[in-house]
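Annex B, item 7. Sequence and structure tokens for protein A, then protein B.
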Amino acid sequence: MTSFEIQRVPFDKHAVRTWAKGDPRHRNWPVVYLLDGGRGGRPSGGLDDVYVGETLNAEARMLQHLDNDEKRQALSEIRVVLDDRYNKSVCLDLESHLIRLLAGDGAYRVLNRNDGITDSAYYDRELYRESFRQVFEQLRAEGVFTRSIPEIENSDLFKLSPYKALTTDQAIAVEDIVEGLLDDLRADTGELLIVQGEPGTGKTVVAIYLMKLLADIAASKPDDEPDADSIFSDFFTEGHRELLTDFRVGLVVPQQSLRKSIQRVFKRTPGLSPSQVLTPFDVGADDQPWDLLIVDEAHRLNQRANQPSGVQNRKFIDITTKLFGVDDITKTQLDWICARSRHQILMVDPEQSVRPADLPPELLRSLVDEAKGERRHYPLTSQLRVKAGEDYIGWVRSILRPGPPDPDAPPPALRTFEGYDLRFFDDLGEMHDAIRERDAEHGLARLVAGYAWEWKSRNDPTAYDIELDGRQLRWNTTATDWIASKTSIDEVGSIHTVQGYDLNYAGVIIGNDLQWDEDAQRLIVDRDSYFDKKGKENNPTLGKTYSDEDLLRYICNVYAVLMTRGIRGTYVYVRDRGLEAQLAKYFV
């Protein structure tokens, strides 16, 4: 039984004053409201803009909005959610809930700032949140939403949205970073900051959140009503606005697929633009300097190495020469970024480096150590992706630890992770069937694999790449947004299509590139079974030859990344029988 109602009022001063006289709750009761264009929210001709708010005095707040020329011109209708059971905490939660879903729906632009999103506990929160679904469904029936909640929550627009409730360590990092940046701007100094975290700790979330927060501070006006519930409200002051006026900010994303997804989000976010989402080559070729460059997955930046195309090899030389006067082969893409920007923020996890062309591990360690020494290091520890708990990532990395056995290190333990669907399969067909079942139930269940099979279908669409246990499969047929593509459920994604993304369930195929040496009691690599040419290529320019030990580290990193994509569960199939027997010891 519903206890709420959604009242609709024209966005007009006379209509608001008339409406307010009809019920004392319109002037003195906690409510949540939406301001929209009144055209139903349909993509073909629906809402251009929408704004969500909460207030104790609906009449007064609506009249304040009507004093804003931009909102008065863009918006035409008010929807007020009224419920006798609501209190301030409930309204803050519902407001945040609707903002997140509206941003993820993707049919229009959300005009809110991102600094007021909350996720606080309060009395009977779960009971109230069940009623939120009813509010959502009525708004969807009215055309405000175009997709169901599961469809929205499974979308990249939702997962990569800047409208997030930050964890404690994320909020601390964002607050300290913005405060330090503003101090540096006052002192006219430049700094490099490191944000470090394992998979699922929200490095990309922090990067995108920072982009939106800085844009909102710069665009704020003296008469904007401050959000007293935001820990960032003190940043929205005139002095800070002036510091960020014409402040040029870019987000560097080395991976093509993730970059395209973030560009789609920025296209729908006021204050942000797809042109701010850059490749390292974009940064190097740009003639205009950047005030701040935020680099997501900075461990995937390249050192000098053979690029995927001759054009990029030429660009590497040209950019380095332009920036440093000579073709200095020791310069990396990180050097380009530092040369083209005054301030840098790097999102880093050295153990997600998966190719020899990536920044050298010793350079990453040096950057992290230096940032720690200068108190410019911000660790993220809260696990947001995998529902297996905080120690799942460490467990995965322990069972995939490269190198000779460490006599002083305890062996990996047989583990169960309560509430997490972790399974071991000895038949690929059965695992694929299970993944298809999970996809039908929850969506976003996919097969992924190490690059242990030739990509035959790239040149012959009729060919199959992986043929095991009576199952015939092909590699991903698209390099961008593969997870959401129509054919992905019957394909296999590689590290280059899933790094940085979430899945609900990941079915991980470990190929013959990774094997177990029973005599040495350690993991070994089969170089001939690894088909990523750039993943095992030597670097004659820098005089680097990559040994099997080097290759083993990259391959172990690949599988550790793949095994940490699944939010609800991870299924594992192992090709090498020796490794299968070894890893089976750690699965219940």
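Protein B:
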Amino acid sequence: MRLILCILRIIVLLLFVPVVSSAQISTGLYRDLPDSLKPADRLHLKIPEVNKILKHWFKNAGWKASYYDEADSLCFRYAGSYRRLRTVREQCDFVHTICGYLYFSSERAMEVDESLVEEDEILPPAQATMGLRYCEVFINNFPEKSIFNEHFLPNIFLYKAHFLMAQRKHKEAYYALLQSKEIAAGKAITSSISIAFSSLGYLSETLGLPEMAIRNYDEALKVIRNEPAAAWIIGQRIYCLYGKQRTFFFDYVKTNNPVLVDSIQRLHKSIGSFPRQYNGAMEAESHVALAGVRYYQGRYAQSIAHVDSAIAIYPNLQLRGLLQDAIAYRALGSIHSRHVKEGRKLLKQLNFSKVRSPVIGRMLEDLYSLSVLDGDYKAASNYQRYLLTYVKRKARLELRGRSIELEQIYRVREQENRISKLQALQYRNMGIAVMVVLMLIIVSVTIYYRYRIGKVSSRKLIAQVERMTELQAMQIEEAREFERKRLAQDLHDDFSASIAASISYLQIKANQAVTEDAKLRALTVLNMLKESYDRVRQRSYMMYWEDQTAGFLKRIEAMVHILFFGTNMEISLVSDLGGFELNADSKATILLILKESITNIIRHANATQVEITFFVDMNTLILEISDNGRGVGNRQYRKSLGLLSLKKRMEALGGSLSIGSQYPSGTVIACTFPLAACGSFPAEHPGL
């Protein structure tokens, strides 16, 4: 029957939605509205005026019950009129206001009509049903880019979650709160994140999940820890502290753990440390929670004292939904304290449809026992029925909470498994990447090393080719010089001699000629031969002397630079023979000494500077080769086959070779030749 009446009520309210022109408010409400909220005409309200009233109605906590009914009527009548607003911005704002109003209104409605009956018989308030509908309207009709206020979307999912809780759809409410938190976190809205966490704490508390509830309340406090102490921030902190205290209280009733009592009392002191203007209602609720602890402990006088403190701090406990809890503690506490008459009088005011205390099971057991003792078996039966319904409902909520907890654990495990797989895949890919990089490095180093080796080898090969080319050029030049000298000698010794003999013979024949004509012809031929003889002598002289010692010194200079090519040594070469001409044996010996000495310096001396001097002093030809290397000892000198061979060559020419050290480091090779054995100073125009 109640279900049918509720459905008819919703239908009637929805039918009145389009009838906007007849909407009006009472004279009393119009009078009590602040000037900023009063409409221009109380008999014909406009949508923006309704929007303003519904948006700020919760600031007027002193309204009469009839005023709240009028606000409900305005909300139901005007909710569907959002389509008449011209801009998306106005529509979005109005629908958000409707959802917010229904959220607060549904909480008030739930406190009015909920009895200890089977859960399936408890109807959700019409505000929750309508609020869920308009939350979906907001989500579907207003994409995020058209929502001008960043708080709206997190708020809508928060409202949706509470509407779902009013309909006992706790799992859907849980995921709606997660969505609200994720959206707020994405936009970095601190207030919305904290509210989402505290709502998750309340839901966990309702479903009998104390650990999850405490964790969420702590997260809500952590989010606003560094926020400035504004009124809203202080109120949220107090609410979270009270939520933790209430959770500890529920858990204490369930487990009877005395440690939780200390936590409840500590949180009570923390709530009381805030100014009364912020914590008045919450401090009163905290006293009611302590009254429940004392009642459960059997300290009935202290329980009544906490109830009195709560009423003194906040007389209108009915607005907080705790009046029936206070009456229950006082009534049963008085009976247990042997103030039976006063207690029974209070019991008549008790309505278990509004008792929210977790010790209600203990209360019902006590009332059942008292009714049995009084012989009132009908009342005892009712209390027993209430107790069974309460236990069944509590067990069902705990099963839902356990289901959500297990599902959350499963989701966390799945997430951990996905993370583990991703990490394994990441490690594998990282290993492959490292191996590829190492292989690339190895290949690059190998290529670079081979390139460097090839480059060095190429340089060495080029240097060797250049050196060999220079040496071959020197050998070719020496061969040409030898051939030139041999040809000059042949011209001088053979051809010139034959011509000289022919000249002598023709001279004799000319002198013996009988006739003048014969004598003239003989003399003509004789003059021709003499001219040829002179030309041959001159040519042989030029061929023999055209590349003598001056050309040899140039070849020495070229050879020195070729041998030291690529060594980065500083070379100094000084030569001055003063016109002295070297013979072939001395030239060969000098070249061999230079080649062997330079080779030893490059291979063994580790020098940076080399000086070579070649000059004539008195009757001696001197060649000195010095470096600043590490020097050579007598033992090394004895083992050097090349130096020993050169020494023998020097001795064959009548010269000497000595090797010694110089200060501060280095080696000096000194070679001396007697001039008589090496060549001669040529005459000005020598004859051949």
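Comment on protein B: DSSP finds 24 helices and seven strands in the chain.
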